[in-house]
Amino acid sequence: MNKHILILGGGTAGTMMANHLQRRLRASEWRMTVVDRSEKHLYQPGFLFLPFGIYDESQIVRNTRDFMPRGVEFVQAEVDQIKPGDHAVTLKDSRELKYDILIVATGCRTAPEETEGMLGPKWRVNVHDFYTLDGAKALREKLQSFTGGRVVVHINEMPIKCPVAPLEFTFLADTFFRERGIRDKVTLTYATPLSGAFTKPKASKKLGHLLTDKRIELVTDFVAERVDQENDKLVCFDGREVPYDLLVTTPTNMGDEAVRRSALGDDLDFIPTHKHTLQSLQHPDVFVIGDATNVPASKAGSVAHFESETLADNVLRHIKGEPLKEEFDGHSNCFIESGNGKALLIDFNYEYEPHEGNFPFAFGPMKLLEESRLNHFGKLAFRHLYWNVLLKAWPMPGISRQKKKPLNA
């Protein structure tokens, strides 16, 4: 009987792994199954654009099965529990799936219930999020009727999916209100638990200047204790308060609830993972990829892309009994929408900060840490690459799984 690779999650990371491995494993020796609760695959970077009418739902939703390679079984079901000791996974419908190798790609979820008062009666009335499809659609409706007031964009705690997305939302909101002719009636505030605009000092300085230039107040070291919906205030543990008329929050992000039920995660239900090999620190036949890991890299699609290349190699090495490659270096790159039809591009890893220079080649054509219209068009073009190249795990010339050491490092 063929051995079995089981992939939990049919999102970005799980789909890429299915495509990588299906091309490299012998069908006569291995079969593969992907389990996901949904038949809809969501292009999550599109959630940022949906509230402003830049994208519509049809552009960011596809059928999950359309991206599964031939020969891979897709099971639509919710995972109940992972049992590494039994090499088994139980589903909510009581089925049990055995595996020889397990790849956990269950992503992460927003958990507004973790913050007191966030899910009160004004949730999706004047307290909104855009990290879910329903949230982004509700916020679109709210913005269409918004005529002015105090808009607060808020990060509850780190880590979060796409850590620059709340900043991007703030910049796009500035442009949106200008184009509607009501920017002078809107005060914009960016409240973050970080000590600056971003996690990396060079990028934080650059992005902080952009906030200042756009007359956006930056409130740092703000760790929200609760949302006071009765008085429309965000309350910090240190007693500070930020009033709002419209709160656009990024709730706490946590791993999948199945990870908690399985007692495999940390306090936020992210799975302890070797940050260079992507093997579970507790179970050698279990590998973890994407947002489900606790590795100190961004929770972003580009990271999953780079991880998938290393992980595909390591699954094959594991099968052969060879030492795993300690290769993944936390490489991440992303476009940062800065408003007015421009964007920045940053590229970094565990060790090196974002630096100036060119991307993806030494001669460009894109500039790092600089605003440009080309970077903005690159961000928009990425949706096409996502559906047609990245999900299918085709190579992307010039974009390596490892970040090269910058010349001035």
Commentary on this structure:
- The protein is of the alpha/beta class.
- Among the domains are: 112-253, FAD/NAD(P)-binding domain (3-Layer(bba) Sandwich), CATH 3.50.50.60; 335-390, no CATH class.
- It has helices spanning 12-24, 133-145, 165-179, 201-213, 257-261, 301-320, 373-390, and strands at 3-8, 30-36, 40-42, 61-63, 73-76, 79-83, 88-91, 96-98, 101-104, 108-110, 127-128, 149-155, 186-191, 216-219, 224-228, 233-236, 241-243, 246-250, 253-255, 286-288, 332-339, 342-348, 357-361, 364-368.
- The strands form 8 sheets. It has a 5-stranded parallel sheet, covered by helices on one side. The protein has a 5-stranded parallel sheet with strand order 11-18-12-13-14. Strands 6-7-8 form a 3-stranded antiparallel sheet.
- Helix 3 (165-179) links the parallel strand 12 (149-155) and strand 13 (186-191).
- The model has no long low-confidence stretch (mean pLDDT 94).
Strand order of the largest sheet: 5-2-1-9-20
Estimate percent helicity: 10-25%
CATH superfamily of one domain: FAD/NAD(P)-binding domain
In CATH, what is the class of one domain?
Alpha Beta
C-alpha geometry: globular
Total helical elements: 7
Strand content: 25-35%
CATH 2nd-level architecture of one domain = 3-Layer(bba) Sandwich
> Rg from C-alpha positions?
21 Å
Instruction: Let me know the largest β-sheet.
Output: 5 strands, parallel
Q: What's the β-strand tally? A: 24
CATH fold label of one domain: FAD/NAD(P)-binding domain
Computed structural class: alpha/beta
Spatial separation of the terminal alpha carbons:
52 Å
Q: What does the average pLDDT come to?
A: 94
Model regions low in confidence, pLDDT < 50 over at least 5 residues: none
